[in-house]
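Structure ticket #2291
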Amino acid sequence: MEKKYLIKAYDPEDWLFDLNDGTEEVHQFIMPEGPRMKNECSDTFYKKGDHVGYHIHKKGCETFYIAKGSAEITIRGKRCVIGRGDMVHIPPNTSHGFTFLEEGTVWRELFHDIDMSGSTINKNWIKDHYPGMYEEPHFRSWYLDKVKNFQRVDPVHVKSVTKDEMWEVRPYGYGLSSFVFDKAVLKQKVGRWETDNVHEIWMAVLKKGACVQWNRPYNESNLFMIAKGSVRFRVLDEEFTAEADNLVHIPPYTKFEAEVLEDGTEVLDYGCTARLLDMLEDYDALISTDAHCFEDAQKKKEFFEKYDCYITGTNLVYSHCE
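Resolution: structure written out below.
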C-alpha cells in the first residue's frame, strides 16, 4: 500500500488478497474487526448474467454499494433494477437474490457479524482440495447451513417495483434523514436500528475547504469511502490525498483530520459508531430554541461525547435539518 491508511480499490497492491473461483472474483480490502466482525470490506466483480440465488443470512448484515454497472435485485418477493451509486442494505433473515446486468459490475461490500471472507476462503479450499465436493447438493447444503446461509427457491411470482419503492434500497442522493451545513449536507443511508446497534452509515456531500478534526484518541476504528472528488487526510504524522474509489481505514486511538479539496466531494462514512442521528436531531432542537447554547466549548465537547462523537474541531456551520 502507498500509505497504510489508504486503500485504492482498483490497485492490486492494496488488496489483502484476491479470490477467483471462476464464478466470482473478490478483492479483499479489510478483514472483520472486533467481536461484532465489523468493517469487513471487499469488491466482488461479476460478469453479465451472473446470478446469486435467493437466500437468507441467519445472522449479520450486508451493505452493498454499486461502484460500477447495474443489477436486478429480488428482495422479499419484490424486484427492481439498481445502478451506480445506489446502495442496498440487507439485515439478517431478509430473503434476497441478484442478477447482474452488465459485464464488470462492481459490488462493493460491507459486512458485520458474518465473516464473509472466511466463508469464501473455506469454500475455495474445499474446491481446490476436493474437486466436485462443493458442487454435490447434499454437501453444499450442509456447508451453507454451517455458515448460516439458508438457501431459498428463486421466486417465480414477484412484484416489479421502482427502487424508490423497495425499503432495502437507498437510491443515490437519498437520505433517511438529512442535515444541512454551510459546507456540507449529511444524509443518513443506514440507521443503527438496521444494524443491531453496530454502526450507522452516512453520506456527506461536501464543498471545497470543509475541514473536520478527530484529535482525541478513542476506541473505535473509522472507515471512509470516497465516492467522488478528493480529500486530504492527515493521520498522525502522515498526509495523503484520497480520491474516488479510495477507502481510508483509521485504526482505534488514532488522531486524524480531513480537508475537502473539491466542491461536490462525496464521502461515505461506513464505520460510524457515533449516535450521529440522535446527536444531530438533539443539536437541531437545542439550537432552534437557543442559538447560543453551544458557545461554551466545554459544553459542546461534553454534548458530543454523550453521543460517542469525538469530533474535536470543524469549520462547518449548521443550518437546518430536512
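Closing remark: Residues 6-170 form a domain with the Jelly Rolls fold (CATH 2.60.120.10).
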